[in-house]
Each structure stands twice: as C-alpha cells, then as structure tokens.
Amino acid sequence: MAISLRSAAISTTPAEPPAPGLAAYDFVLPPGLIAQSPARPRDSARLLEVNLQFILDFRGYDDVHLREHWGSILASSGDVELFEKHYESANSQSVTEFFAFDLRNQDSILACVFAARENARMIRDQISVEMWETINELYLFLKSRNTADVWAAGPYEFFQDIKRNSHLFQGLTDSTYSRSEGWEFIQFGKFIERAHKTTRILDVKYHILLPNAGDVGGAVDTAQWQAVLRSASALEAYRRFYVREILPWKVAEFLIFSDTFPRSVHFCVGQIDEFLRRILGESGARPKSAACRLSRRILADLQSLTIDEVLKEGLHEFLIEIAKSLEKIGDEVVRSTMFYQADSTQEEQQLQQQQAAP
Amino acid sequence: MLISLAHRTTFAYVGKATDSFNEVRLKPVDDAAQACRSFNLQIEPATQVREYVDFYGNTVQYFDVTAPHAQLMVEALSEVETVPNAQRPAVPVVSHESAAALSEAELRTEFLVDSHYVPLTVDVWKEAQDALRDGRTDLWGDVRTICRHVFSNFAYKPKATGVQTLATDALKLRAGVCQDFAHVALGMCRCSGIPARYVSGYFIRLQRKPDDNEPEASHAWIEAFIPGYGWAAYDPTHDRLADDRYIKVASGRDYADIRPVSGTYRGGKTRSLTVDVRVRLSEPAGAPA
User: Fold this and answer.
1) Cβ contact B75:B25 at 8 Å
2) In chain B, what residues touch A356 (CB-CB under 8 Å)?
3) Where are the domains of chain A?
4) Is the peptide bond before B210 cis (omega within 30 degrees of 0)?
5) B221 has a chain A CB within 8 A of its CB
6) Whole-angstrom Cα distance, residue A108 to residue A6?
7) Alpha-carbon torsion A288, A289, A294, A296, what sign?
8) pLDDT tier at B57 (50, 70, 90 boundaries)?
9) Is B115 an 8 Å CB contact of chain A?
10) Residue A34 — φ and ψ, nearest 5°?
11) What is the mean pLDDT of chain B?
C-alpha cells in the first residue's frame, strides 16, 4: 500500500501493514512518487513515495451530524487505541486534530504531507520545480493552520484547499515529469492508492451509514450516497451514467465496476496490472510474480462479476478482499524493487584513541 | 636516533564480519626531521593493499576483506631515523602582525576554522584568552604558552574521555589523554589566529626499564605554522618540543583526518578492539636500550 510504501521509503525498514483507517473519512490518497537513484540499477531503485492527495468531503453533513459520526469514524479507522492514548474524548476538535495535525499519528494529513515533502526534497533535482513548490506550499499551508482555525474558518474550505493542491500536484506530475521508470512507479502507487481508497469509501458507507430498511432510497440515504460519490469526485461522472437517481447498488456498481471512470476499482486495477507489467517486466500471459498473479486474479473478478453477485456474497467481504490484495501487491513491489535487502547493516570499524601515557 | 615501531590493531567480531573496507594511516612520514627506513603492513586475513596520498599529504593504505572473518588484524612494522636535536633549526620569532600581512595566510584557512573534534566555541576562546592573559608575544611563544597552559591545567586521566570526545567536552572535564590535550590546544591556537594542525605518531620513552609493563599507545601532538619556518611541533601533553624522540605518522585538522585505522564492514558488533604498540630503539643488537 502506498501508506506502507511511504513509511518504508522514509525509514527503509520493512513495510508495515497499513492502518486501515484513512478511508474512514473519505481520504483519497493517491500518488507514489518514485525516483530512481542514478547510482543504482533498476532492482535497487529507490522509491520515494509521496502521499499527497487527501480529500475529506464534509459536504453531505452538518456540524451536529458530524459529531455523531466521529466515534464511529474513529472506530472504523482502526486507530482507536492510538487515539485513546492521546485524547480523552472523540469530538470534532480532537478527531480533526488527530487525523489532520497530530504527528504522533503517522497517517495524519500533516504527517503524510511532511513525509511526502521530505521525500520530494531528497529528489528535488529529479522532479520539476513546480511539483516541488506545490508540495512545499501544501506543507506550509498545513503548518500554518491548527484545529481551532480550521473549525472557525470552515473545515470545508480547508479540505477543499488540500484537495485542490493535491489535484494540482497530479496534474503537474502528468505535464512535467518525464515518462521514465520513475513515472511508472508514480502511476502504480497512485492507482494502488486510488483503488484502495475507493474500496474504503464504499466500505465506510456500508459500516457507518447503514440505513434502516425503510430509509433506503429516502432523502437522507440519497444525500449520503451522494456524499460518497462526491468524496470519490465521482458525482458528475455518475450522473452522466445514471441520469435519474442515486441508488446504493448503482453507486456501488459504478465505483467498483466502471470501465471508464478513473477512480473506479476496476479501472484502477486495470492500470495497476499494466504498470506491473512494465515495472516487473511481466510480458507473458502467465505472470511470474505473486504481485502480478494477484492483480490478474482481482482484475478477472472485476471483469467478470456482476454487482448482484457481489451483493449476494456480501459487499463488505468483497471490498475487504480487494483491499487486502492491493496491500499485498504494494508490499511485494516494495520488497522486490525498492530496497536492497542487506543481510546486515554496515558497521563502523571501532576507532582507537591516541593515549600514549606521559 | 633509529627507532623501530610496531603497531598492531586486532578487531574481534561477534560472529563473522564480511565486506570489510578499511583505510590505515600508519606509515611514518619522510620529511626534514625524520626518514622512514622501512615500512611493512601486514593484514590478516591476507589481502591486497593499495595506497594513495590524501589531501594533507598522508600516505593512506587501503584494503578490503570481503570473505567472512571472525577477526581482523592490521600490523604496521616500521623503522624510522630521526634527525638529532642538535641538527634541527630553531623556530624563528615571527610577530603576529608580519604573519597576518602575508597574502599566503589564506592557504591555511582550514587550520584556522572549526573542525569536527575542535569546535571553536566561546569557551575555547575564553580558555585561550586566559592562557594569554599576560600578553601576547610572537607566534611560537604564544603556541608554547597555550600548550603550557593546557599541560598545567588539565589532568592526564585515561578512560575519562573516549575516542569520540570533542575538545569542548575535554575542556569541561579539564582532563583527558593526549588526543584531548592536542584538540584543546588546537582550538586555543586557532582562536588566537595561529594555524595549527593535529599530528598523529609515537614517541619513545628512553628511560623505560626492562620490567616496565605499562601499555604503550600511539601519541598525538600539534604543529603550528610559522611563516619562514614551516610547521613547528609542540607536545602539550608533555609541555615540550616534539624532538627526536617523536615519530610523525600523519597530520590533519584533527583526529578525524588521521584515524590510524578506520573502515566499515557488515556483520555483528565488534567484540573487542586490541591495540598493541611497541616503540623501541633499534640500536645494534645487544646494546642497552
């Protein structure tokens, strides 16, 4: 996962399993930014991973509603223990602090942007100055804000700014970064992250916004599904597809199976497979790497299953399965391409003091 | 004086070490004050040794041992003839003003500014002011005043400091070994505008008794640049000129530039580091030492 790619890139320790939390409140975190160290050949190419894009869409909710959701959002984030260690109660202030600004939470927005900026800083000579400035501005913007300001000035604008900045970064990468191997890694990381976030966004709705049976198709339910679409930046795209109404299974179908929408799980996995082919050199019909076999398997599922079959088997289980596979794919790519796994670290030869007795 | 030297360094590792890359600065220099008659470097496990001359003019031998090994031994055997004191020119009196007026002064800037072991802090500057409180004389006079100050105000105390100790830490302790004495004296000279460098080497104890088992080690002192003369050596640990009992091996800004044996390897921690130094007169066999 890009989350673990990031921590691995920073610490050069083995990737940890990512916390499942981000999607709980509609993060969409794409790109992996990788730079190839000119001194090293491909197999030990260094990955520098930039987690940039965070979208927090509060549009569907008012403040009171939001507070009600904090507890469950936290619960579904998987970071409850860490949160409880540092905070007394879950309210809009503390949760915003925890997810946006708290550096003790390594998945907080500030922590991610900070890590991304550090990585970008290390490879400033390899990315365009525009890319660097964008990520640096985002970092400075975040550093200049705090939770109180955000809630006073309106969280919507705050998250909108972050979102705009990360889209800008994506666009700049597209228009200023050479189509080298580094670009392939960026794209791979981006689509892994996108697919993952889309599964999480859908799953959150499944968990938290589960309506009473009578509410399905009602105004609240529709508004909530609309928010889900918005948080995946998919509302307009969905509208072009299904003009009339927003229905849960249609939203799920669209976000999972769409052939053309660039944030649908199917589209992303198709791209992942393509970039795996390039990165790992998987040219044969039958892949050699476990990562590629896994991506083919979920791609086959995404190409052959229907939404009815998925709902019958359980949407939640299906999404978890996909998310887990994506994590495995990401981990294996990190393991096999990013780092030279030294069997031991390099030690300094002990030095001798010059101490001739008088 | 003909002196024979043996300097053996043995690293023993926990488990095996591999991919060991090392540099040694153990070869005595050839200059106006001494001639290196022979030099032989032994490495165990045996390996090929190459050499280059570094920025400071020191001869550096380097080698690698890639195969797994539990122990690495580096032994340098050399014989050096030092020029008798009577034949050494006296250090001339040069005033600070005339030294500062020389345009070539900037060529030695690296010996006037901070270096890794010798940060030029306010404390170091104050110590230099204290040392020179009776007024400054000429360059060499001030160097000796500074070294005498270090000699009389610092305690020679093994184990009080380590190989990583900075001049500023030794200054706080007011104690240390010759490495620390040299670093402190360097800082004080540099704060006083006198270019000074660290010298690594050995000295021979002539009044050594046959049953004297005190372990020997490599020694360190300093050199200050005196225009018209060159680098003049003084030993703050003994408060004396580095005379014909001293064998110079390498010089640099501080210990970091002259590390006798340094390198990296892969594998476990170092279990032990043993250093054996032997400095003896190599007069005709049978003559009393």
Assistant:
1) no
2) 177-178, 202-203, 216-220, 237, 277
3) 2-338
4) no
5) no
6) 13
7) negative
8) very high
9) no
10) -120, 140
11) 92
Closest residue in chain A to residue B155, using alpha carbons only? A358
Write down the ipTM of this complex: 0.77
Of A344, A353, A355, the CB nearest to B267: A344
Collect all residues with Cβ–Cβ distance below 8 Å to B25 and sequence separation of at least 6.
B54, B58, B59, B60, B61, B200, B249, B250, B258, B259, B260
**Cβ-nearest to A352 among B178, B260, B266:** B260
Cβ-proximal residues to B101 (8 Å cutoff; 6+ apart), any chain: none
Of A342, A344, A353, the CB nearest to B162: A353
**CB contact B278 to A (< 8 Å):** no
The per-residue pLDDT for A93 is 73
Size of interface A-B (CB pairs under 8 A): 90
pLDDT at A73 over 70: no
**pLDDT for B3 beyond 90:** yes
Q: Is B20 on the interface with A (CB under 8 A)?
A: yes
**B29 touches A at CB < 8 Å:** no
Three-class SS of residue B149?
helix
Question: What is the pLDDT, as a whole number, of residue A56?
Answer: 41
Q: Cβ contacts of residue A38 below 8 Å, gap of 6+? A: none
Q: Is the pLDDT of residue A21 over 60?
A: no
Are the Cβ atoms of A349 and B202 closer than 8 angstroms?
no
CA A175 to chain centre: 22
Locate B163 and state its tokens: 């190989």
Phi-psi domain of B285 (left: phi exceeds 0; alpha: psi -120 through 50; beta: other): beta
Test A350 with B11 for CB contact under 8 angstroms: yes
Residues, chain A? 358
Statement: residue A205 has pLDDT above 90: no
Strand locations in chain A (E): 346-348
Structural domains in chain B, CATH included, are: 2-83+259-281 (2.60.40.2250), 88-257 (3.10.620.30)
Q: Who among B22, B200, B217 is closest to A349 (CB)?
A: B22
Q: Give the residue on A whose Cα is nearest the Cα of B158.
A: A355
How many CB atoms are located within 10 Å of the residue B239 CB? 16
Which residues sit opposite B200 in a β-bridge?
A: B220, B250
Chain A residues in contact with B277 by the CB 8 A cut-off are 356
Say whether pLDDT at B240 is over 90.
Answer: yes
Q: Which residues of chain A lie closer than 8 angstroms to B164, CB-CB?
A: 351
